[in-house]
Each structure stands twice: as C-alpha cells, then as structure tokens.
Amino acid sequence: MLKEKLLELRQQALSTIDSADELKALQEAHVRFLGKKGPITEILKGMGKLSKEERPVVGQLANEVRQLITARIEEKRADLEARQLEMKLESEKIDVTLPGRKTAPGSHHLLASIIREVEDLFIGLGFSIEEGPEVEQDYYNFEALNLPKDHPARDMQDSFYITDDILMRTHTSPVQARTLEKHKGVGPVKVICPGKVYRRDNDDATHSHQFMQIEGLYVDHKVRLSDLKGILTVFAKHMFGADREIRLRPSFFPFTEPSVEMDISCFRCGGHGCNVCKGTGWIEILGAGMVHPNVLRMSGFDPGEYTGFAFGMGPERIAMLKYGIEDIRHFYTDDIRFLKQFYRA
Ligand SMILES: [Zn+2]
User: Fold this and answer.
1) Cα 283 to middle of ligand 1, angstroms
2) What's the gap in Å between 48 CA and the centre of ligand 1?
3) Is the dihedral of CA 270, 271, 275, 276 positive or negative?
4) Rounded CA separation 329/327 (Å)
5) How far is it, in rounded angstroms, from Cα 116 to Cα 197?
6) Which residues have a beta carbon within 5 Å of ligand 1, which is an ion?
7) pLDDT tens digit string along 1-23?
8) Which residue has the higher pLDDT, 164 or 344?
9) What is the SS3 assignment for 205?
10) What pLDDT, on a 0 to 100 scale, did the predictor assign at position 344?
11) Distance 323 CA to ligand 1 centre (A)
12) How far apart are CA 137 and CA 123, in angstroms?
C-alpha cells in the first residue's frame, strides 16, 4: 500500500515540478511534497507502525523518492533562473543601431565673435594681443594713466574697490600702462587689449556693471594723428562696410592729448538721417587720441623721442549698432533664444 502511494507521489511531484513555469510555483511544489506536513514526511513518521520486513523497503523507497524530488526541483530551479536571467538581459539589451540623441552645437557668444573679428583685423595690421589682470592696482588703473588721486576725471568712473589700492579695473587701459612699462622705454609698441571691465553702474538698457572693451596702442618714432585716422578708417570700413566715412571730433581724456571721438557715417541711411543715427547721419563709435606725454614718461618712454596713439571701443556698442540690439543686458542674461540668433554671426 505505502509503496504504491510513494510511487504515486513521485509521479505527481515530478509532473508538478515539470509544469512549474516560475520559481514561485516551484517553491510551492517543494512545500507541498517535501514540507514538514507533506505526505513523504508523514510516511517516514509512520514507519514505526510497519512490520520489520516492510520497514527497510518502504524506508529506502521513501528516501529515494525524496532525493529524486529534491534533485528534480534543484534542476528545475537552475533552469528557471537561467531563463529569468536571459529574459532580463533580453529586455535590457541596448540597440546600438538606434540613432543617437542630438546635441545642440555650441557657438561663440556674439561679443566673443566681435572681439575676434577686431583682433583678426588688427593682427593683420601688425598689432599683437595683450591681456592683463581684471583685479588691478590703483596705480595702473589711474595714476600711470595721468589720473592722480585727486583728479576730477576719476569721478566719471566710479569703481568697485577691494582695498584702497586694489580695484576691479574700470577700463583696459592699465594693460597699456603695463605693456609700456615692460618695453622699458624702447619702441615700437603695437598692441590691442581686449577684456572685461567693471563700473559701479546700475544695470539698465544701456549700462552694465561689467562690460567689454578693446583698446589699441601704437607707440613708436614719429607716430602721428594722421596714422591714427588711417587705422581707424580701415577699422570702420572693415566692421561697418567699405563705403563708411569717418570724422574725428575734439574730446577729452586724461591719458590722451589731443583727444578725439570718432564717428562713422550711418550704415543704415548712408548719412541722410534715420533713427539709428538720430537724424544726424553720423554714429559715435569710439574714443581715441595721441598718448599724453605724462603717460609715456610714467611708463619709462621719452616723449621727446616717442609718440603714439591709443583708442578704445566697446564691443557691446558695436554689436548693438550692427545687429539692432536694444538692451545691453541681453549680452549677459544668457537667454538661449537671444544667443541662438547669432549662431555663427
Ligand atoms: Zn542713419
């Protein structure tokens, strides 16, 4: 009787295990057939009631059945686990033939493009590029440029002071002073100095507490105002169109004498008068002049032997004029919609 029951259990167990299609069903089969309350355990527990002859036969068979079921469960478990892993790998497979995600190509900021354009032009005219510190000594920012401590022109450039003698440079002119000093009184010096400058201004459509400047300096024997005019004419035609004319108006800067403002004929209306030139036909572009003898002297150059010119312009102003930009803050708020318009400008 028990022998037949064991054989029947074996048959049931094996077919249950074979049809299990997930680990949970396999676990259930294990509990059902081999658990503490399962039929095989029950049979083994009841062995004491059997006769001496039956006991070893049934005992051996029960053990064999138990071992067979255990082995078949382990086999099936390994099989199911392998299948599960395979499915997982399949579902997580990366299709390397799919097209990649597009990344937007970057481009130069409009101001960087303008600065590069100006740099390229002046490099072609024999100038080299000089840079200097943005955190500057009062001496180079003011004194070496003929702006002593009590000079009223210092009021025009309210500055960010870090200590009494250190400030954020208010213009790129200290680079000129440093460059002259480096040359120890021997010319020629022919440089342009682009970079960031800082003023204590409240930001609005035409003012920014930080903006760009490009200055130029040419010191040599017999440099004349007509040389300045020639260079500036080349610059105006290069940046604003071949038929631009320029005019120089008298002005004042502490570090140049004489000083001039340069206007260009309006590139919009050609000089007839429009809203860009405010009806005058002329647009103010930059300030310039002949280097003040005091500046040359302070930097170790003999004003009897050397003369020079200097000029300074704002890349923002050039960009605003060229592209009809109405608010200087657009350059510094990093709105991608604004920047994108000048992709490869
Ligand atoms: Zn005009």
Assistant:
1) 8
2) 118
3) positive
4) 5
5) 17
6) 266, 268-269, 274, 276-277
7) 778 888 898 999 999 999 988 88
8) 164
9) coil
10) 67
11) 14
12) 28
Residues belonging to the binding site for Mg(2+) are 257
- Residues annotated within the binding site are 257
Residue 156 has pLDDT above 60, yes or no: no
* Residue 185 DSSP code: T
pTM of the predicted protein model = 0.68
Cα 291 from Cα 303, distance rounded (Å): 9
In angstroms, what is the span from residue 147 Cα to ligand 1's centroid?
A: 36
Do residues 219 and 301 make contact, with C-beta atoms less than 8 angstroms apart?
yes
pLDDT in tens, 235-277: 999 999 999 999 999 999 989 999 999 999 998 888 898 988 8
CA of 265 to the centre of ligand 1 (A): 8
Asked if residue 308 lies in contact with residue 290, where contact means CB atoms within 8 angstroms, the answer is: yes
Residue type, 107: S
Tell me the residue type at 102.
K
SS3 307: strand
Burial (CB count <10 Å: 0-12, 13-18, 19+), residue 312: buried
In angstroms, what is the span from residue 203 Cα to ligand 1's centroid? 27
Q: What are phi and psi of 159, to 5 degrees?
A: -120, 165
Please tell me whether the peptide bond between 303 and the residue prior to it is cis, using omega within 30 degrees of 0.
no
Q: Cα(278) to centroid of ligand 1, in Å?
A: 7
Domain ranges of the chain: 2-91, 110-342
CATH of domain 110-342: 3.30.930.10
Secondary structure element (H or E) that encloses residue 189, with its range? strand 189-198
Which residues have CB under 8 Å from 105's CB, separation 6+? none
